[in-house]
Amino acid sequence: MKVTFPHMGNLHIPVATLLRDLSLEVVVPPPTNQRSLSLGVRHSPESACFPFKLNIGNFIEAHEKGADTILMAGGVGPCRLGYYAQVQKEILRDLGYDFEYIILEPPRGHIGELWEKIRRLNGGVTVKQVIGALRLAWEKVLALDAVEKALHHLRPRVVFPDQATAVYRRSLEALDKASGIARIRAIKVHTLDELESLPRRGGPKPLRVALVGEIYTVLEPFANLSIEERLGKMGVEVCRALFLGDWIRSNLLLDALRLKGGMDVKEAAKPYLNRFVGGEGQESVGYAVLSARRGYDGVLHIAPFTCMPEIVAESILPAVSRDYNIPSMTLMLDEHSAETGIITRLEAFVDLLARRRGQRKEMEQLERIPGD
Amino acid sequence: MNGYLGIDVGSVSTNVVVINDAHEVLTSLYLRTGGQPIRVVQEAIRQLKEQLSPDLEIAGVGTTGSGRELTGVMVGADVVKNEITAHAVAAQHFVPEVQTVLEIGGQDSKIVILRDGIVVDFAMNSVCAAGTGSFLDRQAARLGVAIEEFGRMALRSKNPVRIAGRCAVFAESDMIHKQQMGHTMEDIIRGLCQALVRNYLNNVGKGKEILAPVVFQGGVAANIGIVKAFEEALGTKVVVPRYYHVMGAIGAAMLAREKILAGAEETRFRGFGVSEVDYRTGSFECRGCPNCCEIIEFYMDGSLAARWGGRCEKWQRVQQEAAERA
Q1: Looking at beta carbons, which residues of chain B come within 8 Å of A332?
Q2: B81: chain A residues, CB-CB within 8 Å
Q3: B96-240 matches B2-88+247-275 in CATH topology
Q4: What pLDDT digit, counting tens, does each position of B88-111 carry?
Q5: Do B85 and A165 touch (CB under 8 A)?
Q6: Are B118 and A347 within 8 A, CB to CB?
Q7: Distance CA A227, CA A341 (A)
Q8: What is the pLDDT of residues A115-167, one digit of tens each?
Q9: Is A226 on the interface with B (CB under 8 A)?
Q10: Which of A96, A323, A348, B257 would suit a FRET pair with A298, their CA atoms being 20 to 30 Å apart?
């Protein structure tokens, strides 16, 4: 049995570690690329969302590398992703790919069922082995989050942003290979040191933009046209709402124990959106509110074209913008997104934020003069 | 005397202006891009040289429009700016109190919302080009009407017909249908103007608070039929500035001036000689990863001047290292 799973940003690093430590053979699909996109678009329903199409591309490319079992997330809606696994199964079967499926439904208190699925993957697995594998994978998640946060902070502050990106990429490779907790921590510390020691540039404090939206689009650089890197190079500090660790903590761990996570975000969303609308719709609104309170310069909201939960958020964000006086912009992305169009909008948005900040400074100075 | 050059290379037209320190337009050119931005920019620079007085010194250059990067490298720009910012800056200069800028060009349309002198929101068309200049051009040609006559004909209509404006193809089928029903040309044209405005306001202007003064610019602002349709739909007067067709270029020139004055730097302008330089572009497919990026190379008189088109930093890095060695 050779297990594969879809890409989503750096998710493959902890997931491959976890599966390998459960003594499974793992085939990580090639990084999502133009070819995965073409394959996915050709074989997916036109109106399915972008993640669906890229998943199909990943699965076909993994099959070429020998994968025969797919591990895919399920879900309970209202986001369509919950039934993607079923539809993808049908499509791949019609195309003649012979895959076994393990569909992971959110545990929602049914930990026994999850245990059954793990046993199906590897009958001889022990509880101790599972705990060890989870600990190692979790350590990688924490290291990845820390490295990414440092990258976002430093990219707009260093002389050569490409150098920071290169350090980050090297660290991803090292973390992927690392096989002990001590080693993972050492890589993390080393990367953070390396990033910190890059030559800094002077000048004003970078603009801070909150990146909110649907999790796949936010985490997968191929889907969002490397939006974080582009903004970083424009001198903008990206403050991302979602990190793998936070997401796993609030959506899987706490949920599995039937506890509620991310309450402050939901609390912040309340005056605008008082209920779960699927995916990250409510979180997008809540995080936009929190970003405004934290004094960020703007909110960038991204999602796949036709994403229902984020369309709900998109229609609410102008109200948040008005109430908190914080600019926001929504970009809906899919295989038709033209790079030039996205760049033009990003540049214009950053200009808008920069000019606003300039004006606010002038106002403050004007207000200060009479008191002097 | 100092002059500041602004170049707006759009999909349909390439506009070039030179302004002075008082922001007065000394000269303006409007040429068809025709898919050949390099040749058109060279032609424009040649014409400029003939028109400008010899004691005028180009002290700064700004480029904008979809061809801004290429043109920026070519002429040596001090500022390379997106068209949204450029249009807003120019509109604000001619109408300082402006709160809304409507801009409709050859293939895209945008709206910019300003409050207290700064841009607070903007949008660009993302669905369809049904409201833009190219579509109007095409429909005028199909009806056998000169595009310059289009607007005036619309004003003569008494009973505009309702045309579906959602998408260019459906708008065209609907127009043909209305012709075959026997509606007059004037009524159809006015109906089309209204459909385009409706489409623009529902898609591009969706959810935006459109407050007066409203400035309408871009090539389509020449069309009096569309101007009237906007005024009817918005219930307010729409201002079409004198240089409506070259506002992007004016904005780019103003931003270049701002930058030069703020930094007290010398311009990077390569001089009028750029009209004689041999520019060439080439491309190759990078085989470094499965993305197979199309890398575009830009040569000036045989030597590599710029590279772009990669998803990662690989080729920029090669270029940066080469520059450091040189």
Answers
A1: 126
A2: 347, 351
A3: yes
A4: 999 999 999 999 999 998 888 899
A5: no
A6: no
A7: 13
A8: 777 777 777 788 888 889 999 999 999 999 999 999 999 999 999 998 999 99
A9: yes
A10: B257
Strands (E), chain A: 2-4, 25-26, 69-73, 100-104, 207-213, 236-240, 298-304, 328-333
Q: Output the six-digit token pair for A200.
A: 């800094």
Core vs surface per residue B297-307: b (16+ CB within 10 A) or e: bbebeeeebbb
ipTM exceeding 0.85, yes/no: no
- The partner residue sitting opposite B313, judged by closest CB among A34, A35, A165, is A165
Contact list, A162 vs chain B (CB under 8 Å): 313, 316-317, 320
- B96-240 fold: Nucleotidyltransferase; domain 5 (3.30.420)
Q: Provide, as residue numbers in chain B, all residues whose Cβ is less than 8 Å from the Cβ of A31.
A: 289-290
Q: What CATH number does the domain located at B2-88+247-275 have?
A: 3.30.420.40
Give me the residue spans of the domains in chain B.
Answer: 2-88+247-275, 96-240, 279-325
- Of the residues B66, B84, B295, B318, the best mutation for testing chain A's interface (the one with the most A CB atoms within 10 Å of its CB) is B84
What tens digit of pLDDT does each residue of A309-366 get? 999 999 999 999 999 999 999 999 988 877 888 888 999 999 999 988 887 776 666 6
Q: Where are the beta strands (DSSP E) in chain B?
A: 2-9, 13-19, 25-32, 57-64, 79-80, 100-104, 109-115, 118-124, 214-217, 238-239, 279-285, 294-300, 303-308
Cβ pair B290:A30 closer than 8 A = yes
Provide, as residue numbers in chain A, all residues whose Cβ is less than 8 Å from the Cβ of B119. 348, 351-352, 355
